[in-house]
Amino acid sequence: MSEQNNDHLVEVRGLKKYFQVQEGFFSGGLSRSNLFVQAVDGVDFDIRRGEVLGLAGESGSGKTTIGRLVLRLLEPTEGTIWFDGVDLNALSTDDMRRMRRRMQLIFQDPFASLNPRMRIGESIGHGHKIHYGTSPAERRQAVEEIMEHVGLTPARTLYEKYPHQLSGGQRQRAVIARALVTQPDLIVADEPIAMADVSVRALLLDLMIRLKNEYNLTYLFITHDLATAKYICDRIGILYLGKLVETGFLPDVYGSPSHPYTRALLSAVPVPDPDSRHQKTLPRGEIPNPINPPAGCRFHPRCPLAIDICSQVEPELRPVLGTPTHLAACHLTTGDYQA
Ligand code: SF4
């Protein structure tokens, strides 16, 4: 990339990740050694400094894989990821390790991601030790400060606890504290409230918003839940079978969804009104096999508006008429074809 936009903390171009399918994974006696799951298949997006970009889609859409690619926890098959003007693919292992201080991950399952034999304070401080080489006393002070900040109080007492001695909400706060302790710029939050009790989900989202503002953070927020995304995201990308099908600012995408898949996902968001005649219209059928995705528009086997061209020509992500920051990949939204 020759020109970097200084407003963008992250720039992703042409990102692909194919996973080779293990031989013998499928029955039938055929050799499968040259088959690949196309988990991410040519994705472009930017994350502006200080914003929350959501990536949403069903299971198997590729959103979690993209999160791990952005952190270079996975190597891309193709494509580039620029972080603050640096091509991550070009970094040595040591340089990438140093860069990782600035980019952290919040996992979906805090219980699985915290070492059960480590005290909470030690788990939170582990990254501080690695990246700053601090003394135990300095580390303890930094950890207790961050624990207080995320609501793990009294920090001095909770520091000594083990994960099983905390509530689910406290464990998720510990995972957030662990991500913050290295003073990152970017946090990839992968379904960060999905395992939390419903009663504390809004509190955790409010906490993430407050921390973003206080620490000048940028979030890549991965979720299957468009109601959660609406609460926290500034912009959103809708993923389907490894490709972005719609992107834009929340008022545009939620107010005027252009892609039939986005409309279906939004129509399935529960409405908190018992008198509502709201209809759930999830896309018909299952998400297709990512080893052999449908030709043309990948959504065409499930799309209620599909026309002949849809099974033959893949639609490009293009501006929705009159809105340059709102893009959709659908032949009908480009105005070239009529239903
Ligand atoms: Fe449906 Fe065709 Fe649009 Fe794909 S391109 S979403 S199949 S109308």
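DSSP finds eleven helices and twelve strands in the chain.
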